[in-house]
Specification:
- The chain has two domains: 195 residues, no CATH class; 186 residues, no CATH class.
- With 447 residues, the protein is α+β, with helices and mostly antiparallel strands.
- Strand 14 and strand 15 form a beta hairpin.
- It starts with a strand and ends with a helix.
- Helix 9 crosses helix 10 and helix 11 runs antiparallel to helix 12.
């Protein structure tokens, strides 16, 4: 049996037609370029290499216990998450089946809530019910959550870790603290569904959400990172979100997609066990009139230098900071390190003063160029990030080749410190949050 298709009505085999339809129904892949994927791989290799080098030096040093801390940090926050990400892209299905994914690619919290309505109506309904929109993960918010956790002070808009659905992080998240304790909170993330997208079974909704209750702070079972632990009964948190919203706005109706998924128990990306009955309540907020209060909404485009620093993702801020520190270290080394000054003198003796001056000017220009690119990066410069990644990757590759050939003595010295700065900066630049930050400016310009 065949069906006709195309402009000329050319017969198309039924099997090919079904295959084409199935491909059209698949979730779109993230718009990551080949360069971003290659840079991510290079950053992963650099992290593993750095962890191995520091581990070797820690065995040879009496400061082994102190060096364990950076080895753990690099392994838990850089190496393992990236390995999880690359491997899970191979074996974790990318189609929708009622589960979110962590930024590392692991299966995350269950999808347990739906919403009909637009973004302003959803925002109004949540804020009327006493929910606060969570801050983005920036330098300021990261410092805020650290201080609030250590001092047990309230932080009602504390950031939440990113979860992925439809190939992207959540669009918005809301939370409620419990008795002013930053360790315990109700929170729910929402993703806007792609236009025309159907749920399993053919139902439709505008938003999907994942609500869970944080009970404490602990270590992740899979990545060894410090993270929030969730209560295993996610259905209770789902019902709490629905009840709080409907109590504040009685005009909101609800429908329930029973047996949306099979009831099951599993673990999320942090290793926490959870159970669910598989039902999906859908809130209808189309009757809610937006109140127009935008006090909790941040400006889309930063206006001042302070806005730029505050709104930049933590990965961008870390990368810029490390580049500045590296430039300072290079300057101090040139001015005060006897070995570096001796090497410059040898270059002047062998190649002449003109050659030495040219090398000095070239080195200074590269340092100034990196600082300029770092500033452009804060301004969401896409090309600046690309050039910095290339420069850092080439420098790290040169150090690695010199180490293998015995030309670079990497120990507890300036060489290891400089290599560490460059590796960490490269890792920050090749993160998905850094790529999304620079792509956001380019996409905004396209509109």
């Amino acid at each position: 049996m065949t069906v006709t298709g195309g402009a000329q009505g050319t017969p198309v085999p039924e099997r090919a037609s079904k295959r084409r339809f199935a491909l059209q129904m698949q979730q779109p892949l993230p718009r990551a370029t080949l360069f971003d994927r290659t840079a991510f791989l290079i950053g992963t290799i650099a992290a593993a290499w750095l962890a191995v080098i520091i581990s070797i030096q820690s065995v040879r040093s009496p400061w082994a216990l102190l060096l364990f801390v950076p080895v753990w940090a690099i392994t838990a926050y850089l190496v393992l998450p990236r390995l999880h990400k690359m491997l899970s892209d191979l074996y974790v299905p990318d189609y929708f089946f009622g589960r979110t994914r962590t930024a590392d690619g692991l299966l995350g919290d269950p999808v347990n809530l739906g919403v009909d309505g637009d973004g302003e109506q959803l925002d109004t309904a949540m804020r009327r019910a006493g929910w606060h929109r969570a801050d983005e993960i920036t330098v300021r918010s990261t410092w805020g959550i650290i201080v609030s956790t250590l001092t047990r002070k309230s932080y009602p808009t504390a950031p939440v870790s990113p979860l992925m659905l439809f190939g992207r992080r959540h669009d918005v998240a809301y939370q409620q603290e419990v008795a002013g304790n930053p360790k315990q909170r109700h929170h729910v993330r929402f993703w806007h569904c792609p236009p025309g997208w159907l749920l399993p079974g053919g139902a439709q909704t505008d938003w999907l959400g994942a609500g869970t209750y944080d009970t404490d702070v602990g270590f992740s079972l899979f990545t060894l990172q410090i993270t929030h632990r969730i209560d295993e009964n996610t259905d209770e948190e789902r019902d709490f979100v629905v009840a709080s919203v409907r109590e504040a706005s009685p005009e909101i109706a609800t429908r329930t997609l029973r047996d949306f998924t099979t009831g099951y128990h599993a673990r999320n990306g942090g290793g926490d066990r959870f159970i669910t009955d598989g039902h999906l309540p859908v809130l209808d907020v189309t009757a809610v009139t937006p109140d127009g209060d935008t006090s909790e909404r941040e400006p889309v485009v930063p206006q001042t230098a302070q806005d730029v620093v505050d709104r930049a993702p933590l990965s961008i801020a870390i990368s810029v900071f490390l580049i500045i520190v590296s430039a300072i270290v290079d300057f101090v080394a040139v001015m005060f390190d006897p070995e570096v000054r001796q090497s410059w003198n040898e270059a002047a003796d062998s190649g002449g003063p003109i050659f030495a001056a040219a090398v000095t000017i070239l080195g200074g220009s590269l340092t100034l160029g990196q600082l300029f690119l770092a500033w452009r990066l804060l301004r969401r410069g896409h090309r600046s990030r690309t050039l910095l990644i290339i420069l850092l990757a080439l420098t790290i590759f040169g150090i690695a080749v010199g180490y293998v050939q015995g030309l670079e003595a990497i120990g507890l010295n300036g060489t290891l410190f400089s290599a560490s700065l460059m590796c960490l900066s490269l890792l920050a630049l090749t993160s998905e949050s850094a790529a999304a930050w620079t792509r956001g400016r380019r996409n905004a310009g396209a509109h």
